[in-house]
Amino acid sequence: MDLTVLIGIIGAIASISIGDILEGGNPVHVVHITSLIIVIPTAMFAAAAACETSAIKAAFIELKMVFKQLPIDFESRIDELVEYSILVKKNGVLSLEKYLEEIDDEFLKEAMNMVVDGSKEEQIEESLDAIIEETEHYYHSASHYWILAAETSPTIGLIGAVLGLILALQRLDNPAEMAAGIAGAFTATVTGIAASYVFFGPWGNKMRAKARTIIKEKEIILYAAKAIVRGDAPGELKLKLTKLITVMPLRS
């Protein structure tokens, strides 16, 4: 579980609620069913209209990654790649073949398969680069859907508020009902802003950040596969791979 997401969302809601209570308000009154119906589905449908079907599907399939820690350990992965490099240096590329079935990462397995098959450095780069680009596009499309929903939500909230005000102004003969209608109308604005900056926006940006970590791991594997084919020394390989992740934490 990624606690930063839960703490961030719960903390944001709690901060707003506490501030409202201190001013004598009641946070429960901000939760307006009509506003939720107007804002949330409309923003999501509007975002869907701007995305491909595959992107919408990916957005919901990959939403779970926002709330979970990625099972990526750069330090362990580098050690594994260096071990393969040492093995090839000592016993040749064919010695890797018996370890292929033990590899649980499909991208790494594909990379080591190409090494065992005697593929040239250029062939490995061309093949694996295509996979990396496709993966990058997949996660970009998925995160972009939620970012679009975030961008749309505040405006949809304003539309909901205007609709509520139109209805409220039709009750000029009953000031109490009109006041209640105006108050209800503004909950749509609050709902739209909250949906954007507390939910959809953070989801999209978190997904994009984690996708970058996934891509970084694949780039490390690609570099290592080419280095093994080139015959780079294992010590040199470890140094270069470590440099690739110096701007990132070793554990994600």
UniProtKB/TrEMBL annotation:
Classification lineage: Bacteria, Pseudomonadati, Campylobacterota, Epsilonproteobacteria, Campylobacterales
Any one Gene Ontology cellular component term annotated for this protein: plasma membrane
Main location: membrane
GO terms, biological process: bacterial-type flagellum-dependent swarming motility; chemotaxis; protein transport
Species annotation: Arcobacter ellisii
InterPro entries documented for this protein: MotA-like (IPR047055), MotA_ExbB_proton_chnl (IPR002898)
Pfam family, one: MotA_ExbB
Protein's UniProt name: Flagellar motor protein MotA
Keyword set, alphabetical order: Cell membrane, Cell projection, Cilium, Flagellum, Membrane, Protein transport, Transmembrane, Transmembrane helix, Transport
Homology family: Belongs to the exbB/tolQ family.
Transmembrane segments: 29-51, 145-167, 179-200
The keyword Cell membrane appears for this protein: yes
Domain MotA/TolQ/ExbB proton channel: 101-219
Membrane topology category: Multi-pass membrane protein
Subcellular location as annotated: Cell inner membrane; Membrane
